[in-house]
Amino acid sequence: MKLPAVAIPSHLEMLVEMGYNINARDEGGWTPLHEAVGALKLENVHILAQLGANLNIRSNEGTLSAEGERTENTKALKHGKKYLEAANKSGKVHFIQLAYHVLGWLHLQIYLNSNAKQESLLEKAKQWCERSLAYLSKHALDIDCDKNAVQIGQDSRSRKARLQQVLSQICDKMKLQSLSLRYHSAAMAYAVRAGDHDLQYRCLLSKMNFSGDQRLKTAIELVHVASNLDQQASCEAKFILAQEKIRAKDFAGAKWDLISMLASKAHEKLDAEEQRSFYQILITAYKTIERLRVLPDADEHFKMKINEKVADSLYEVGFCEISLEYYKQMLAYACQTEDKIKALVSVAETAKELDRYEEALNCFVEVENLENTLNICNAKKADTSLCIASAAANIDSFAPHEVLEFFRKSECLAVYSHQKKTLYENMLAYMNENDVDKDLRIETEAKLISLSNDQENDSKRPENGEETDENFVDEWDDLSDTQVLARCYEEANRHSMEERIRSEKDKKINLYGETRMHEAARGSDTQHLEMLVEMGYNINARDEGGWTPLHEAVGALKLENVHILAQLGANLNIRSNEGTLSAEGERTVCLICSLFHRVHNDY
């Protein structure tokens, strides 16, 4: 149930104590903290922050005004400033300090939520947080001596650590890596000392973005810390760990982490967007494992196609780094010139996504060299030339006149309007960021305007035969997402059963002292019986009456089980302490002995 953040402070604390979710999100992604900030409920913001509200959850919409209307980002900042005005009017230093913090945090959230990333938002976020830090340093003693301030928003050390955590995020986005790491280390050190698991969790989430080759280790630590928080945080951490395992190419480990979440329904704790991502990543991991399984025995061409399939699927779910590795494997197995061109283009485009423009440029140049050996039309050559120019425009080592020369070459080759339009747009974007002759910019703008008035229909251009490619489909393409998920559920159930069996190995399961082996021996599932033996169960385990699984099979007249147990090494000479009763009420083992003789005769 969602927590009503506009409640009076005492009522708010009572609801938290009653178990209300402090980070519950509505359909717009709003948490109680979003509500409190939007409604300018100053003290409620302090209480929610003190009680562990997640300051890093982003909503799907704008900020909520006091009247309950959703507004744009600019209005959200106005509310933040009104919040500061209210704090200043109160004259309380702990309110003013947190108001600076909230303004910095708001600027960061707006930057993260915006499609167009405005660097000015980060600059202002940094300025407000640093101002809050300086103000806190000046008034730390005042805050620490104010019991009400400490009760509402914690002491100066805790406030400082939370500010440092936000600053580490801001500095990371601004590519101030050393400063980001310094803020992170300070915040994390405090969180560990104070046993503040929520702050540790937020610090580790931030660290994921700048920890380089330590991402997997950080994700493991994140899961450990999240175990001290609520189920949602724990689930999110496990999902993050699974994704990091994929980046480390531990597809099997990732698959079992995800299947475990699926079987336990832990994935339902994720928000709607994350749940969609969860299903797609699980399906991708499952198919990737099955596709890689056939690689060792495949020929070169098939290996190329399988690596392309794996790379494509990983790229589609956002794993560009690992996708690039498989595109390179695709290139390694490509023998035909056309296949090499296709693989090089895939490597280049993926490298561009990762801002590795020099690598992309080298691949496009190699594509151009290979195309020159084939009978390829000018339109196709123009596409490649434009890719070279666009990549060069993002490499600092090239002087403006060199980049413009690349664009001029593309212009000479361009055939269709859409090619020229893209070319001039890219040229203008480059000119706007570099010191280029003003007359050339005006000339390029005129060409673009002239092109917009051109009624040429590119749809009439002839089809290029060389662009067609065989439609390679494997058995995993034929399976729907629902079918793959059904297989995952089956594996989850089997895995769960195997784990239960391992945990119960040779344990007594009832008052008679029987084990699972006894139970299986008198049952009808021969595969289950054989599996227990394979998993190391004692084939000669004895219950309270001295009965072994073989006695159970004989007594239940399960002849096939008797054969299996005898074949797998059951001791045929163990006698039980009990027998069966004759018609006269005397103990006898005749039935058992006669069946034993039949087994002896067979073996």
UniProtKB/TrEMBL annotation:
Q: GO terms for CC? A: nuclear replication fork
Q: Which domain of life is it from?
A: Eukaryota
Subcellular locations according to the entry: Nucleus
Q: Which InterPro entries match?
A: Ankyrin_rpt, Ankyrin_rpt-contain_sf, MMS22L-TONSL_complex_comp, TPR-like_helical_dom_sf
**Keywords, alphabetical:** ANK repeat, Leucine-rich repeat, Nucleus, Repeat
Q: Which Pfam families match?
A: Ank, Ank_2
Its BP terms in the Gene Ontology are:
double-strand break repair via homologous recombination; replication fork processing
Map the ANK repeats onto residue numbers: 28-60, 512-544, 545-577
Q: Does the keyword Nucleotidyltransferase apply?
A: no
Q: What is its main location?
A: nucleus
Q: Which Gene3D superfamilies match?
A: Ankyrin repeat-containing domain, Tetratricopeptide repeat domain
Disordered, as annotated region: 449-471
The name this protein carries in UniProt is ANK_REP_REGION domain-containing protein
